[in-house]
């Protein structure tokens, strides 16, 4: 398959489609990112890489970090992790508080904010130096020893993070947050503000396309069984209350972030990362989803 030709066609189709959408402004620093950025990078499990557009420009991965956080928590805690959160789609927006009250502070899944905040609380108990340990792990899976976070974005989110504070406080009241709320949120905002290029994100996601193995190594970061579970969660919960429509249009396990990134995997074959900042009302990149839809249409590659 000529992936280069295909992703160039995807890129041109998406640019011509003028998908619309709004760059996120509820984190003011994110609102400064130019709306016309667009990049798509595909990487095969053999390590061949194909790029179109702004693939070497770092952007804030935001909620895509929830996949990496979950990977570490699941590796450390195994199935006991599921005593603190569940694995059901929420059908509600990523930052919703509604279910949390009547489900007594147990988040529906690790990819809504509440679930990721619980995962951060779990990791705080496990890591000596959570920011450093998480950053080092990210450096390893991206093969970029200089990878870091965007301090201005983390600070901007901290300064405007009333909603996430409400979520964390409600869970704390129900006894599902062990550490101080500010310490947990500080780590959560740090993870969300990690910046990656499409090339690095595709490389990190290759792990989920390749049964938990790092590129160019026989070493497994994640077992085959846990990789399956994380991919299942991406498929059912990765795009929040748009997970159904995303499955219908694309058909690849994926995760979005309000920075405009969407990363997805075709297990056994390839990973793909797209970046385009304008979002639809559900907080997912309009052009990102269209690009993945075109990709699966043109390649015929989908888990369905
Ligand atoms: N940091 C963002 C928040 O908590 C992440 C949300 C997202 O990317 N969907 O609101």
Give the secondary structure arrangement, pairings included.
Elements: H1 3-17, E1 39-44, E2 49-53, E3 59-60, H2 65-77, H3 98-102, H4 113-126, H5 130-142, H6 151-159, H7 162-173, H8 181-192, E4 195-196, H9 198-209, H10 224-237, H11 243-249, E5 254-256, E6 261-266, E7 270-275, H12 286-299
Antiparallel strand pairs: 1-2, 1-7, 3-4, 5-6, 6-7
Helix pairs in contact: 1-12, 2-4, 2-10, 4-7, 4-8, 6-8, 7-8
Glutamine is lined by residues 62-63, 94-95, 113, 157, 164, 192, 257-258, 283.
What are the main properties of this structure?
Beta-lactamase; 2 domains; 304 residues; 12 helices; alpha+beta; five-stranded antiparallel sheet; single chain
Can you put this structure into words, describing what you see?
It is a single chain. This protein folds into two domains: 166 residues, Beta-lactamase (3-Layer(aba) Sandwich), CATH 3.40.710; 130 residues, Beta-lactamase (3-Layer(aba) Sandwich), CATH 3.40.710.10. The chain is 46% helix and 10% strand. It has 304 residues and is an alpha+beta fold. The longest helix is centred in the N-terminal third of the chain and has 15 residues. The site of glutamine (GLN) has 11 residues, from loops.
């Amino acid at each position: 398959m000529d992936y280069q030709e295909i992703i160039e066609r995807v890129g041109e189709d998406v640019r011509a489609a003028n998908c619309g959408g709004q760059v996120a402004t509820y984190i003011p620093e994110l609102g400064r990112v130019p709306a016309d950025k667009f990049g798509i990078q595909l990487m095969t499990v053999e390590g061949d890489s194909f790029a179109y557009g702004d693939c070497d420009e770092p952007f804030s991965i935001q909620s895509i970090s929830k996949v990496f956080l979950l990977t570490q928590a699941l590796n450390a805690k195994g199935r006991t992790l599921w005593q603190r959160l569940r694995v059901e789609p929420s059908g509600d927006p990523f930052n919703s508080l509604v279910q949390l009250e009547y489900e007594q502070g147990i988040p529906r899944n690790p990819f809504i904010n509440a679930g990721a905040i619980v995962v951060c609380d779990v990791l705080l108990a496990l890591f000596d130096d959570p920011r450093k340990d998480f950053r080092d792990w990210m450096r390893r899976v991206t093969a970029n020893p200089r990878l870091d976070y965007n301090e201005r974005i983390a600070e901007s989110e901290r300064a405007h993070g009333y909603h996430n504070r409400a979520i964390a406080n409600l869970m704390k009241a129900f006894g599902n947050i062990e550490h101080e709320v500010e310490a947990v949120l500080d780590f959560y905002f740090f993870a969300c503000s990690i910046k990656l290029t499409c090339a690095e994100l595709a490389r990190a996601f290759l792990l989920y396309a390749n049964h938990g193995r790092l590129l160019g190594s026989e070493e497994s970061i994640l077992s085959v069984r846990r990789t399956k579970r994380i991919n299942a969660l991406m498929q059912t919960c990765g795009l929040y209350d748009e997970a159904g429509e995303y499955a219908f249009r694309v058909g690849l396990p994926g995760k979005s972030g309000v920075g405009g990134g969407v990363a997805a995997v075709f297990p056994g074959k390839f990973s793909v990362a797209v970046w385009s900042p304008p979002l639809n009302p559900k907080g997912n990149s309009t052009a990102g989803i269209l690009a993945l839809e075109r990709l699966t249409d043109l390649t015929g590659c989908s888990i369905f």
